[in-house]
Amino acid sequence: MALYSLSPKGLWHRLKTASQAQSLEPGNPALPKHVALIMDGNGRWARKRNLPRTSGHEAGLQKVREIAEECGRLGIPYLTLYAFSTENWKRPKAEVSFLMNLFYDSLKDVTTTLDEQEVRIDFLGIPDGLSPKLLNLIKEVQAQTAAHSRLTLNLAINYGGRNEILHAAKELMRAAARQEMDPEVLTEKQFAAYLFTAGQPDPDLLIRTSGEQRISNFLLWQTAYTELYFTDTLWPDFGPAELRAALVAYMKRSRRFGGIKKGRGK
Ligand code: IPE
Ligand code: IPE
Ligand code: MG
Q1: Residue 130 has pLDDT above 90, yes or no
Q2: Which residue among 127, 170, 181, 200 is buried most deeply as judged by most CB within 10 Å?
Q3: What is the mean pLDDT of residues 66-73?
């Protein structure tokens, strides 16, 4: 045992593991400030077990709490979860209403623990089509948690990236019509202030589970320079260990934003 750990290979392995563990130290500035997640694969997870798709959504919900807690523990201040897209209304009515009830019940449940965990909940998306009951709860939760700052958890419910950009464009056109803004001097920064994510940093890392490699209308503006990470793991199997693997992969990337980095190879 002693001999093995002193061998060059053993030593290298230990050093490597140590540096990786260190890099996941809570508050490490190399960690992303904002992680966005496309939680995909609930239906396939259920099908593999001969269960109804709804069981996959229930199993997936458990992971939301685990991942949010892990982000809080690591000191990652923003987490955005894609829960329901503007395109998901195409699904069977029964699945859509199951999901809406699940959102309502889980938000109701979680409100009691949000204060102690200092989580601020925000919502990205449009009200059209959501029930007044869910919309009222959303408003309440937003107001109740507005002062928290440890972790901002954005829930994207009835969210579409194109819809968000269109919404911003309409607002700006109205402001221009009222002569409150001048289109000639509009900047990217000012435009971004009209998005649902106003005031928040762009995601550094976008994770999509279940093997699909597409954006599916998520955060189209905000992901211009986001690092993408795709994993075959289905969402209900994606726990803190999988999140940490994604973070380690992220920290090995060289982000150049169109420039060049000296001494970092390609
Ligand atoms: C993601 O899982 C959850 C939502 C879109 C609400 P899916 O329901 O898309 O699962 P698959 O892709 O069918 O496996
Ligand atoms: C994206 O997943 C939306 C959410 C995870 C909420 P979908 O399962 O709806 O995406 P597509 O249809 O495979 O692109
Ligand atoms: Mg899917």
Answers
A1: yes
A2: 200
A3: 95
Atom of ligand 2 at shortest range from CA of 214: 14
Give the span between the Cα atoms of 176 and 89, in whole angstroms: 33
Alpha-helical runs (H) found in the chain:
2-6, 8-23, 42-48, 53-74, 93-117, 132-145, 161-177, 188-192, 240-251
Could you tell me the pTM of the whole model?
0.91
Q: What is the count of structural domains for the chain?
A: 1
Is the pLDDT at 84 greater than 60, yes or no? yes
91 domain residue, yes or no: yes
Cα 60 to ligand 1 centre (Å):
9
Structure tokens at 9: 């290979």
Among 37, 39, 42, residue to substitute to test ligand 1 (most atoms within 8 Å of Cβ): 42
- 240-251 vs 53-74: helix axis angle to the nearest 10? 60
Give the structural domain span for 99. Answer: 31-160+202-251
What is the CATH classification number for the domain harbouring 138? Answer: 3.40.1180.10
Using alpha carbons, list the distances in angstroms from residue 51 to 40, 48, 55, 90, 114. 17, 8, 6, 21, 31
Does 99 sit in the ligand 1 pocket, CB within 6 Å?
yes
